Amino acid sequence: MRISTLTIFEQNISSMNRQQGEFLKVGQQIASGRRVVNPSDDPQAASRAVGVKQSMAVTEQYTNARITVRNMLAQEESVLNSLGDGITRAKTLMIQAANGTSVSGSNVSEVRGIYESILGQANASDGNGGFLFGGYQSDSPPFVKNVDGAVNYVGDDQVREQRIDASRLMPVGDNGNTIFRSVTAGAGYVAEAGAANAGNVIFTGPAVVDATDPDYGVSFTLTFEVSDDSVSYRINDGDPQVYEAGQAIRFGCLSLTLEGSPVTGDRINLGLAKNMDADLFTTLEQAIAALEAPGGTEQQRAALSNTLSTVMRKLDNSLDTVLTARASVGARLNELDVIDTVAGNRMLNYEQTLSDLVDLDYVEAVSNYSLRKVGLQAAQKSFVDIQGMSLFNFLK
């Protein structure tokens, strides 16, 4: 078989190129630390690696989302802590006034300061240019003062949410209605004296004596009637009953103690806290107005006592609401920690899977590198030897 010189050269060059390509490929793997440098190296592993990388990217996005949510919840928890301290201090001042401690201008000023502080906390920023308690309307302060000084809520009743994991959409705050204008489901009854009361009757309570009573949840109104020889009261539209100061009266599920002397038309309204005005700002406004009012007459002192009793009950309910919200925030922060732990383990699994798919076994690669180097050198040496062979060397 006749083999031309050209064929010999082409075959040897092809062999050296192949050996050099394999040698460079192994060198590239060692330099990059990856077994699969190009998809053609292992198409199946490369395809699976793309899916794993996508899953890792999604997990990282959720991790960043949790960082944002954690910052917002931590900000809310701090505000709720300050809010609870303010309500507690206001309750302390109410107790002092109710116990007969003289109401000084400094005490009234302190209550006003608490009022303004709580208003500032209600309009607290979430750290991202929005407002914590505005719901989806977070671009403007959720609480504003009218020209008459009353505070109105102009946010919405929704709660912003953010996806922190594939299967979890977490609330990132609470709206202002929930924190400042509502009570917990377990809040009991609240009593309020009628605004037009002219007598000096004072109430203590109410106390729920039977929460299983069919009338639990019903609102009641005590209306007083005074004649020349007797004082009586009606429960809603019921029959008149004789009033005796200092004795507890029982109606429906409640017990209420009354003292003092009413006049005809005086009223006491009782209802579940959720059905009464639960606005924290209104409560503080009532307290300030009562503390600033003169207290020289028995009627004025009775009005102060009744207002303070109502305000203290409402402040307790507001504090319960704040503490409940704070507990909810703490539970969400704990959940974020749990999800972070799960996500961390998931990322480790992804990294291990990706390493198994594309990372290089250096021991095998170095051995293969040496082998390819020997092969390349052998191809080069054989080409040198062969290309020097010629029949003219044997002619004489």
TrEMBL record:
This protein's GO CC annotations: bacterial-type flagellum hook; extracellular region
Any Pfam family matching the protein: Flagellin_N
Domain of life: Bacteria
InterPro entries: Flagell_FlgL, Flagellin, Flagellin_N
GO molecular function ontology, one term from the record: structural molecule activity
Record-annotated membrane-spanning stretches: none
Location relative to the cell: Bacterial flagellum; Secreted
Major localisation: other
Entry keyword set: Bacterial flagellum, Cell projection, Cilium, Flagellum, Secreted
Entry's Gene Ontology BP terms: bacterial-type flagellum-dependent cell motility
Domain Flagellin N-terminal intervals: 3-137
Annotated family: Belongs to the bacterial flagellin family.
Record protein name field: Flagellar hook-associated protein 3
